[in-house]
Design a protein that fits this description.
51% of the residues lie in helices and 16% in strands. The protein has 19 helices and 19 strands. The strands form six sheets. Strands 7, 8, 9, 10, 11, 12 and 13 form a seven-stranded mixed sheet that branches. It has a three-stranded antiparallel sheet with strand order 4-15-18. It has a three-stranded mixed sheet with strand order 5-14-6, with helices on one face. Strand 9, helix 10 and strand 10 form a beta-alpha-beta unit. The radius of gyration is 31 Å and the shape is elongated.
Length: 548
C-alpha cells in the first residue's frame, strides 16, 4: 500500500513504471490524433458538438481547444501546445508531435534499463545546443523588410490551412493589413485589424478594406444610404433623454405643465443636435460637395435622427466600443465626449461611406481613408464552415507576418531546421561524455518527426525521403544552404528559393516548451488522485448527512 493510501483510503495511485506508461501512452495517443494535420498535405478533422454543430478544421489550436480531452496528461500537453499558439500564433501541432516523439524515444531507452533522470539530462543538453544552433541558423532580414519575404511568410502559413487557390487570394490581403497598421517605434497591434464576415457570395470575393466595416447601419428611413467626401464625427454623447442617476420623479397637475416638461426634455437633445448641425454647415458649406456622418457610441432618439436626416447626415448609434478607437485611427480626428467645443480638427475624413443590406443584417462601409492605421479584412463565404476556416487561417497569417517584422529574421521551412539540427546534434553528441549522449541521440531522432510526418502526409516513403534529405544536407553543408522537403515529389529543395519560410519566434518557443514538458513527464514516478476535491458531490452530501 502506498504511503498516501494510509492517509486517504480512497486515493488512487499509479507507481513508477505504471505512472510512466500512463504518461507516455497519453502523449503517443495525442500524437496519433494530431499527426495527420501537419503541413500543406495534412487532412481535415470533423468536430461534432453535443447539439449537432459541425466544424471542419486542420488547425491544431482549434482542435486542442474544441476537443474534449479527459486524460490529465493529454490535457496538460494540449494546454502547453495551445499556450504557444496564443503567444506567437503557430506551432501547436509541432509541439504535440515533438512531445509524443520525445516520450516514445525515451520509452525505448527505459526498456533498455536507462534511468529517466539520465535521459532528461541528455534532453536538456540537446535542447540548449539546439537553441544555440537556432541563433546561427536564422537568416537576418536587415533594416528593411522585403515585401516578397512577407508574402512568402503569409503563403507558408495560409497554405497549410487552406486550399492553395483560396490561400493565394488572401496572401496580399494579410500582408497589406499588417503593413497598414504598422507604426514606427510601436509594437504592431493586430486588434486594429477588424475581421468582418458576410455570409454572402463566394469565398474568393473576400477583400481588404482600407477603412472599416461596421455590422450595423443607420436607423432612419430618410437618411441617405451612400455619401462621398465625408467628414466623420466620432462621439460618445447621449443624443436621447436619460433618466437621472438618483431616484427622482416629476409631477404635473395639468396639460400645460406636461407640455412644458416634454419641451424641456426635447430641448436637452435638440441643443446638442443643433451644435452638430452647425459644425456640419461650417465644414461642408452650401455647395453640397462635402457631406457629414455621425458615429455615436451611445443612443440617438428618433427625434434627433429626424433632425439629422433633414440635414442629409448619416447617424449610426450604439457603435461597438472596440470600433471607437479603430474609427479614429482609420479616418483621423478625435473621439469626443461632449459637443460643447467641437472643431474641424475633431473630424475624420473618408472618400465614401455606404450601407449594404443582407436580409435583416446591415453593414456600414467606411472606405478611402487617407492614412489609415486601422483596417478591415472582409471575409465572404457561402456557409459558416467556410467562413470559420478562413477566419482561423487569416488570424494565423496575420501573426506570422507580424512575427517576421518584429523578429527581423526568418527560418527556412519545409523541415529544414529539423534536418540541420539533427546533423548538428550528431556532431555535438560526440562531445558529450557518459550515458547522457543516449539522450542527445534520442532528442536528435525525435526532431526528425516533423519531416517524417510531412513525408507521410504527402504519401511518400518516409525512410527513403529522410535518407535523401540527410544526404543532400551533408553535400550542401559547406555551402551554407538549407535543405527542406518538397511534398510534391519527395525530393530535397532549398526552402528559401521556393519561398517556404517559418518564424524564428515559433521555433524558439517550440524548443522551449516541448522538451521541457517532456522532461517533466519523464520524471513523474507516481500519479496520485487524492486531492480534496476528489470525492463526488453525492459522497460529500452523504457525509454531511451522516454528521448531522
Amino acid at each position: 500500500m502506498s504511503a498516501v493510501q494510509f492517509l486517504n483510503s480512497k486515493a488512487e495511485v499509479l507507481k513508477k513504471t505504471s505512472a510512466l506508461v500512463h504518461n507516455i501512452n497519453a502523449a503517443k495517443g495525442l500524437q496519433e490524433v494530431m499527426k495527420t494535420n501537419l503541413g500543406p498535405k495534412g487532412t481535415l478533422k470533423m468536430l461534432v458538438g453535443g447539439a449537432g454543430q459541425i466544424k471542419l478544421t486542420k488547425d491544431g489550436n482549434v482542435l486542442m481547444h474544441e476537443m474534449q480531452i479527459q486524460h490529465p496528461t493529454a490535457s496538460m500537453i494540449a494546454r502547453a501546445a495551445t499556450a504557444q499558439d496564443d503567444n506567437v500564433g503557430d506551432g501547436t501541432t509541432s509541439n504535440v508531435l515533438l512531445i509524443g516523439e520525445l516520450l516514445k524515444q525515451a520509452d525505448r531507452l527505459i526498456q533498455d534499463g536507462i534511468h529517466p533522470r539520465i535521459i532528461t539530462e541528455g534532453y536538456e543538453l540537446a535542447r540548449q545546443h539546439c537553441l544555440e544552433f537556432l541563433e546561427s541558423f536564422r537568416k537576418s532580414l536587415g533594416e528593411t523588410t522585403d515585401l516578397a519575404v512577407l508574402r512568402n511568410v503569409a503563403r507558408t502559413s495560409l497554405q497549410t490551412k487552406l486550399h492553395p487557390e483560396l490561400a493565394n487570394l488572401l496572401i496580399d490581403i494579410v500582408v497589406e493589413a499588417v503593413l497598414t497598421i504598422r507604426q514606427d517605434n510601436k509594437p504592431i497591434d493586430l486588434f486594429m485589424v477588424e475581421l468582418m464576415h458576410m455570409p454572402h457570395r463566394m469565398a474568393t470575393e473576400s477583400r481588404f478594406v482600407r477603412g472599416l466595416v461596421l455590422d450595423h447601419g443607420a436607423r432612419h428611413p430618410d437618411m441617405p444610404r451612400r455619401l462621398e467626401n465625408v467628414y466623420i464625427l466620432t462621439c460618445n454623447v447621449s443624443l436621447e433623454y436619460e433618466k437621472t442617476e438618483v431616484n427622482s420623479g416629476f409631477f404635473f397637475s395639468n396639460a400645460e405643465q406636461r407640455d412644458k416638461l416634454i419641451k424641456s426634455e426635447r430641448k436637452f437633445v435638440q441643443e446638442r443636435c443643433e451644435k452638430i448641425i452647425a459644425l456640419k454647415r461650417q465644414v461642408c458649406g452650401e455647395d453640397g460637395k462635402k457631406t457629414f456622418c455621425v458615429i455615436n457610441q451611445k443612443g440617438v432618439e428618433p427625434l434627433a435622427l429626424d433632425l439629422l436626416a433633414r440635414e442629409g447626415i448619416i447617424a449610426l448609434r450604439r457603435a461597438k466600443r472596440r470600433n471607437m478607437e479603430r474609427i479614429t485611427l482609420a479616418c483621423g480626428g478625435n473621439a469626443v465626449n461632449s459637443v460643447d467645443e467641437l472643431t474641424a480638427e475633431d473630424l475624420g475624413y473618408a472618400d465614401e461611406v455606404y450601407e449594404v443590406s443582407l436580409g435583416d443584417d446591415r453593414f456600414f462601409f467606411i472606405e478611402g481613408c487617407k492614412n489609415p492605421k486601422s483596417c478591415t479584412i472582409l471575409i465572404k463565404g457561402q456557409n459558416e464552415h467556410t467562413i470559420s476556416i478562413m477566419k482561423d487561417a487569416v488570424r494565423d497569417g496575420l501573426r506570422a507576418v507580424k512575427n517576421t517584422i518584429e523578429d527581423g529574421c526568418l527560418i527556412p521551412g519545409a523541415g529544414a531546421f529539423e534536418i540541420a539540427a539533427y546533423s548538428s546534434l550528431q556532431t555535438f553528441k560526440d562531445t558529450v561524455k557518459g550515458k547522457a549522449k543516449l539522450g542527445v541521440q534520442a532528442f536528435a531522432e525525435s526532431l526528425l518527426i516533423i519531416p517524417k510526418i510531412l513525408a507521410e502526409n504527402a504519401g511518400l516513403d518516409v525512410q527513403e525521403t529522410i535518407i535523401k534529405l540527410l544526404d543532400a544536407y551533408r553535400e550542401q553543408k559547406d555551402k551554407n544552404v538549407s535543405i527542406g522537403l518538397n511534398v510534391e515529389d519527395g525530393n530535397p529543395i532549398s526552402p528559401e528559393m521556393q519561398g517556404i519560410i517559418d518564424n524564428y519566434i515559433v521555433k524558439k518557443n517550440f524548443l522551449n516548451i516541448a522538451p521541457v514538458l517532456a522532461e517533466q513527464l519523464l520524471l513523474v514516478d507516481e500519479v496520485l488522485r487524492a486531492g480534496k476535491r476528489m470525492s463526488s458531490p453525492i459522497d460529500e452530501a452523504a457525509a454531511m448527512a451522516g454528521g448531522m
